[in-house]
Predict the structure.
Amino acid sequence: MQIGVRQRLIFLTFSGLFVAMSQIGSYRYFVEKRNIVFNARINGELSCKLMSGLAAPYLLVSDITGINNITQNFLTQPDMQELTIGDSSGKPLVHAGRLAVADKRILIGPCPVSLNQGRLGDIRIGAYPADLDGRLEVYAAGVLIEYLAAIFILVSILTRVVSRIITRPVTHTGNLLKDVIDRKDLTRRVESVHHDESAACGHGQSDGNIIRSEGAA
């Protein structure tokens, strides 16, 4: 099966786009993963400061029930994996975490719990993005659809451009030259409206007669 110039050009362009977009897509994937983890860290640091303020009144009166309540409310946040609240000596009073705590969790703290300039204890938090793999899969699927649409549009445009600028003029010139040869009429002009390589295809000399391609004025 013979492959034409248009098919070869489109194939090479598609291959180049595929390789380039694969590299860009991989880079965007890792950047997105880094951003998700970074946002989990930032949210963990903000939550640690917030929890230190909420836990202060309960630590002041050693209200373990109240501390447990705010701990359970804290764990309703998707990216918060575990929480430890300790007293002023560093002894853990409450420790709670999810059933499956991420091994790569980001440890934040200790954040001091203070009230009226007195240190009542500290808080330690373990944070990690919930369902990170699922979120990245959704992101990757979106990027893939975006790139496939872009490649489809670019290949469609390229097909039309190549057909108009290269394939049609070359085919037209080739057909006219074949007709000249078949008729053995070497005085016939092969005209072309293009000022490019396709116009040069018709230039030639044979026994003093000229087969030429004329550009449009």
